[in-house]
Amino acid sequence: MNTDRRKDWDTYFMDIAYMVSTRSQCSRRHVGAVLVQGKKLLGTAYNGAPMGVPDCSEAGCMIAEDYELVVQDGKETVVKKQRCIRTIHAEQNLLLFTDRIDREGSTVYVTDEPCWTCANMLANSGIVEVVFHRPYPKDTEKVSNMMKQKGILFRQLSGYEPPRETMMAVKE
Q1: How far apart are CA 135 and CA 129, in angstroms?
Q2: Contact of 139 with 113, CB cutoff 8 Å
Q3: Would residue 65 show up in a list of annotated catalytic residues for this protein?
Q4: pLDDT tens across 49-69, in order?
Q5: Active-site residue among 58, 65, 76, 91?
Q6: What's the average model confidence in pLDDT over 131-141?
Q7: CA distance 20 to 83
């Protein structure tokens, strides 16, 4: 009989990413990220305005709209994407506040699937794996393809239940 009631490592580190996300002041989405090498936690970050600058809860969101031409099943469609440009994404902050040497061969756990910009940055960061929980369908296909090309393990943690106290409604 297994008496070990500890959480598995994926759950443990994703729980930490969700706890980190509670520091975010973003009204649209709280995102947390952690950098792990082996079983050693090397850094944490969350999404928000630059230090010393009013965040979205104080100054409101700065929404920018982008349009992207997507070809699916031979059919072209235009997809409208909205994003807040006041906020630095959790993955970007993680890369800003960790050392390259620590990132080499490491894993990033992030509450949300990285957007295209963050995926590009992660692809050049030295990490070898990205584990996420919530999908970001607008960029999934191209991000997955790029990660595969780079040889970075990219996986969604399915069946995972975040700590209840960390949850917020996500606005698209």
Answers
A1: 16
A2: yes
A3: no
A4: 999 998 888 888 888 888 888
A5: 91
A6: 91
A7: 21
